[in-house]
Each structure stands twice: as C-alpha cells, then as structure tokens.
Amino acid sequence: MKRPAHKAPLRRFIPIRALKFFVLSGEQTIRGPQDVMRVQVGQAEAGRGADVPMQVSSSGPADLHALVMFVVDATRPFSSPATLP
Fold it and tell me: How many domains does one find in the chain?
C-alpha cells in the first residue's frame, strides 16, 4: 500500500525478464525514459524491460493497493539507482 502522491525512488531493475502491475485500488503511475503510464483500478500493465529506468508512484486520490509480479534472473543484482533523461 502506498499513500496518495507517494513516489518510490527511481530504480533500474537489471535482471527483469517480466514485470506486471495490477491495481486493486487507487491509481498507479509508471514513469520511464520515453513515456508515462497511468494504471487505473482493475487494469493490468506490463512494466519496463531489463535495464530500463522507471519510477512508480501512487497518483490517485486514494491509497494505492496493487499486485506486482517480478520474474528476474537470480544471478544478477535486483536493482540499482538510476536517472531519467
């Protein structure tokens, strides 16, 4: 759960093979180098690919409750700090 307007640190998820978000309540924003995706209640959205920076935030007026699934390469570090252009 994330409170409204909460922003997670900008991260680069290195070993991602698949990433999926499903919003149960609230609204989620996924910001990447080329676009911004808004995910509404009941919607699912694929995340960015490996080595692509992204920032996930709660952007709706209500608390965000979401399911997130990462499928990763366990032989590589999970994430690292990143910047967006």
Answer: 1
